[in-house]
UniProtKB/TrEMBL annotation:
It comes from the Archaea. It comes from Pyrobaculum neutrophilum (strain DSM 2338 / JCM 9278 / NBRC 100436 / V24Sta). SUPFAM superfamilies: Winged helix' DNA-binding domain (SSF46785). Signal peptide: none annotated. InterPro entries: WH-like_DNA-bd_sf (IPR036388), WH_DNA-bd_sf (IPR036390). Keywords: Membrane, Transmembrane, Transmembrane helix. This is Transcriptional regulator, ArsR family. The chain crosses the membrane at residues 107-140, 152-171, 183-203, 210-232, 244-262.
């Protein structure tokens, strides 16, 4: 991927890739007109992109390959820095790109998941037990408690983690590997450790507002999970960020928020 990015990150090749990413497959004539270049120049650039495996030509149509869609999505992360697009900035796309390309990705991902499971194991022995139910946390000093036993709470939490990874793998048709999925789920993975720490400090120092703070941070963690997960998915699968974001907001933020707010009604 690094070789491909270096090959398409600048000049006319970048313009071609981003145009195809934005507009979809185009004819040679429409590409040439949109870019304002000669036919010979366009064919030269397309040949270079074809050798990188980024574009394909069928008759007079030019379209991005799966690799091309991924490369275009990564290159497009520079655009939020120019336009200060709120949604893309919240998605932390430049940071996500760096994490996905980092040589330490696997170590960081496995450490994150092990820490996630360990925090939920500790949380399962609290009263009431802390559990992850799908994408929503319930129990220990949270707005919702469903009265699960310690063993069942831990089992439900671990099954929920496994289900999130499996669902992502299936929905992406195997293109989103577990370590990269972990990057997208990082905010809710880190939350139980933070929650347990804040509740412990609240009880030790008799600062009840720390529990309220933790509950507020839960909503923030859900929001950032939706945006970061959308960034990871769009970059790896080649989908548009905005389109994926609508779905992830519904799953990771709107649905849990409605669950937490239900008792208030």
């Amino acid at each position: 991927m690094e070789r491909v990015l270096y090959g398409v990150a600048a000049g006319r090749r970048r313009d071609i890739v981003l145009l195809l990413h934005r507009e979809g497959p185009l004819t040679l004539a429409k590409l040439r007109a949109a870019l304002g270049i000669s036919a010979s120049t366009l064919l030269f650039e397309l040949s270079a992109l074809e050798s990188l495996g980024v574009v394909k030509r069928e008759d007079s149509m030019v379209y991005l390959t799966e690799l091309g869609e991924r490369a275009a999505s990564i290159i497009a992360t520079a655009e939020p820095l120019k336009t200060l697009s709120f949604l893309s900035v919240v998605g932390l796309r430049p940071l996500v790109v760096w994490l996905l390309l980092s040589p330490y990705l696997h170590i960081a991902a496995y450490t994150l998941v092990i820490g996630w499971a360990a925090a939920l194991a500790i949380g399962a022995f609290q009263s009431p037990p802390l559990a992850l139910l799908g994408v929503a946390y319930v129990g220990y000093n949270l707005p919702i408690s469903i009265g699960l036993s310690k063993t069942v709470s831990l089992a439900v939490s671990l099954l929920s983690i496994a289900a999130l990874f499996l669902a992502t793998y299936l929905l992406s048709k195997g293109r989103l590997a577990p370590p990269k999925t972990a990057v997208g789920l990082a905010p809710i993975a880190l939350y139980p450790s933070l929650h347990l720490t804040l509740v412990h400090l609240a009880h030790m120092w008799e600062l009840t507002h720390l529990i309220t703070l933790s509950q507020v941070l839960l909503f923030i963690a859900l929001l950032f999970t939706a945006t970061i997960y959308a960034a990871v998915y769009s970059l790896e699968v080649g989908s548009t960020y905005e389109g994926v974001l609508v779905r992830t907001l519904l799953v990771f933020f709107v649905a849990p928020a409605l669950l937490y707010l239900a008792p208030i009604r």
